[in-house]
Request: fold
Amino acid sequence: MSEHEHHHDHEHHHHDHPMENKEQVKALLDYNYKHNTSHADELKKLSDKLESLGYAEAAARVSEAEKLFSEGNANLKAALDIISSD
Reply:
């Protein structure tokens, strides 16, 4: 695989989503939260694999990225909770 090729187990569909009302915004927020959580899980596995292969520095970098991703996901979840409580 060249440095510019990417493999994903799923496809990303980046297009305009309808956001005309609260339920549509809530659905999109929920989708993004769940989708990004799966990416954080993938980063954790990747960090663990790098560590087991002896790439401690690379593992640490990926682990830091996973932590930042998780922080972002926590904010998405908090926003979803706020919307859901109305």
The chain has one domain: 22-84. Residues 22-84 form one domain.
